[in-house]
Design brief:
Order of helices and strands: EHHEEEEEHEHEEEEEEHEEH
Oligomer: single chain
Distance between the termini: 64 Å
Strand content: 25-35%
Helix content: 10-25%
Radius of gyration: 21 Å
Largest sheet: 9 strands, mixed
Amino acid sequence: MIFNNFVVTEDDAGIRIDKYLAEANPEMSRSRISKLIDDGFISVNGATIMKSNYKVNEDDVILLEIPDAVEPSIDAEDIPLDILYEDDDVIVINKPKGLVVHPAPGHYTGTLVNALMYHCKGNLSGINGIMRPGIVHRIDKDTTGVIVACKNDVAHNSLASQLKVHSITRKYEAIVYNVIKEDEGTVNAPIGRSNIDRKKMAINYSNGRDAITHFKVIERFKNYSYIECKLETGRTHQIRVHMSSRNNPLLGDEVYGPKKCPYNLEGQVLHARILGFRHPRTGEYMEFEAPLPEYFTNLLQLLKNK
């Protein structure tokens, strides 16, 4: 356990404690600070603080306890990885359909994290906790394409900061129901938990978070559209929810679209085609592209021939 003490000065009085501690500890992300607050590791003037929105006062004495790193309790598994790029800081993977990104109830083995634990020999960032080492962002089980993982906390903090300011390039390709008449457009609508079904996300103007998706049509078919979606934000199920809100749900998406799909698909037709970011060590902009999976190209050919 590491203990750090801070005394708030007049200049810092009035700001949120999570922001204050994140600025005082640049090696730690604000989300990591919030997690420590939730877990009771931060006290002010001897009293444990449980809310990240507490505003510090002049002469407040803050004790920050940083627990020792816990060895992940998940197993390393020799699962083949399609590696697009790798160095000492990051590893970029082309994720196949059906592969869960990190362990969760019902999927504690056979995940991307299990595979990364084996391939990287445990050298992964620990900021996101025991069950999600190395994971900065995620894509759904049935979404294919580019995803990056981090091998150390410095790299993780860098990429997390880039995600926060929306400077990471994320372009997806999808096939959606119905013909989209305009060549391009933007869906700007907040996303949060559905008030009707808590297992689903939805457009939620009262409790949702800002979400922006830019789309453009690549090709039109008789009853479908092949599109590119560029994410400005990265909310859970963002493309699926936004396109469904336009009456253009993703083909194969039985959660946000029709329950019965006319084609034999495993989940939504969605592919993370391009991912670009500044390298956490060199600052160089790097961009990676994952080719469309075979099922996607076969489906495109089938739709063209109809």
